[in-house]
Amino acid sequence: MHPPSQSSLLLLGIVIILITPGPTNTLLAAAGLRRGIKRAMPLMAAELAGYLIAISAWGYLVTHAANFLAWLPTSMRIACSVYIAYLAVAMWRAAVSLPTSAHKTAGVSALFVTTLLNPKAMLFASAIFPPSAFADPIAYLRTMSIFAAALIPIGFLWITFGAALGTGRLAWLSPERVQRGASIVLATFSVALAWTTIH
């Protein structure tokens, strides 16, 4: 049995982080709930733009700082592992709630800014993306293509999830169940990230 390729591991890491509940995904689900799938679709372009800018900025910072701070990449990976573990515990202990239909839904600009400031961007830049992605233009384009290919269906999934909540078709899927499932995934990923960083 062949070991998983670097691209497969990259895609897996991207999917795990992107699919977990967070501020951007909450806004996408709320938009699906309030606007419906078709009218909420443009928000995915704002999400992609926000992530691309934030990840590129973090990646550039980490890559250039590593030239005179050799310990920085490893330290940031360990910090990311601890942060993910913290998120896992926080998600388990408190229910993830989606805004109800009575709440105002964020627009394109609000979702863009929310994504731009999303801590997940730092995780992608310092722990998920390979260092070569910020040193070689070809590697950057390839990595960002994989990222975009994962983001679009996951964003659509969250919008669809919100729309389904509005119809009552997912009454059995409580926010608590979503959160606890996500917390288990995050905890597993945190341990795996720490293990690969230390060894």
From TrEMBL:
Signal peptide: none annotated. Pfam families: LysE. Keywords: Cell membrane, Membrane, Transmembrane, Transmembrane helix. GO terms for molecular function: amino acid transmembrane transporter activity. It is a multi-pass membrane protein. The chain crosses the membrane at residues 48-71, 78-96, 108-129, 141-161, 181-198. Its main location: membrane. GO terms for cellular component: plasma membrane. PANTHER family: ARGININE EXPORTER PROTEIN ARGO, ARGININE EXPORTER PROTEIN ARGO-RELATED. This is LysE family protein.
